[in-house]
Amino acid sequence: ELTRAQLQKRSLAGNTRGMMEAEEESRSHSQQQQQEPTSQRGGRVAALTQLPLTRVKNIIKSDPDITLAGQEAVLLIAKATELFIGHLARLSHVNTVQGKRKTIQRRDLDACLPVHDELTFLEGTLDS
């Protein structure tokens, strides 16, 4: 038979466990909302990229071969561009750290191009 103190501990532990489960469920729910790509606010798709979609669409339209660019295509191109820029920045940052500096410079970016095969298409395009 359990003593009153043991019952109180179990009750308290049960309440604590319940509160922790509620917090975890709340956290899980908020993460799920952040990950939903189709969440809408006021009839517009929530910002999923840091690049301005209007500007991305204008750049796409500047290509004479492209006649139409749907909203989903613009969003995907913007997200892919953002990921590419981040990848390039990370690779450049490695050169910056190896040079014992804190600011990424043009030479760090130039040093990445011949080393990484996936960036060979950029050689010559960044010349000023």
Overview of this protein structure:
The chain has 128 residues and is mainly alpha-helical. It is 62% helix and 3% strand. It contains four helices and two strands; from the N terminus they run H-E-E-H-H-H. A two-stranded antiparallel sheet has the order 1-2. Strand 1 and strand 2 (44-45) form a beta hairpin. Helix 3 (71-98) crosses helix 4. The protein starts with a helix and ends in a 13-residue tail after the last helix.
Helix and strand content put the structural class at mainly alpha
State the helicity in percent bands. Answer: 55-70%
Global morphology = flat
The biggest beta sheet is recorded as: 2 strands, antiparallel
Strand/helix succession: HEEHHH
Per DSSP, what share of the residues sits in E-state strands of 2 or more residues? Answer: under 5%
* Order of neighbouring strands in the sheet with most strands: 1-2
Helical run tally: 4
Radius of gyration: 25 Å
Q: What is the mean pLDDT? A: 77
The end-to-end distance, rounded to whole angstroms, is: 84 Å
Which ranges are low-confidence, i.e. pLDDT below 50, for 5 or more consecutive residues? 33-43
Q: How many DSSP E strands?
A: 2
Topology, pairings included?
Elements: H1 4-35, E1 40-41, E2 44-45, H2 53-61, H3 71-98, H4 106-115
Antiparallel strand pairs: 1-2
Helix pairs in contact: 2-3, 3-4
Keywords:
single chain; 128 residues; mainly alpha; two-stranded antiparallel sheet; 62% helix
